[in-house]
Amino acid sequence: IRASFNASEGRIAGIDLARAIKPEERREISGGETTFSELNGAMTYADRRFQFNQVKMIAGLLRANADFALSQEQVSGRISVSLESRAAAFHTALTLSGTPQAPVLKK
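The structure corresponding to this sequence follows.
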């Protein structure tokens, strides 16, 4: 199965990208949530596993791009996050791992 998706005004439970991008935040982050205004990308499903590619998310000043895989047992992938305002700019690359019930972000 192959599909594209587009969602607006939602939230992703289990990961807090705004917290993860902060320079003072610890190297491994879990829990929280990310509220977004736009989320879109491409998805394939094969062998009981979802593969998400070219995922783009907008959440206020925060922007993220991701590619990740999701099965019943695990989640894995990479997320590039940026936050830009007049006062400061932050950019970081994160690794996504863990389970769908308890995802973990690592710097």
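Strands lie at 2-13, 28-30, 33-46, 49-59, 62-70, 75-84, 89-98, 103-106.
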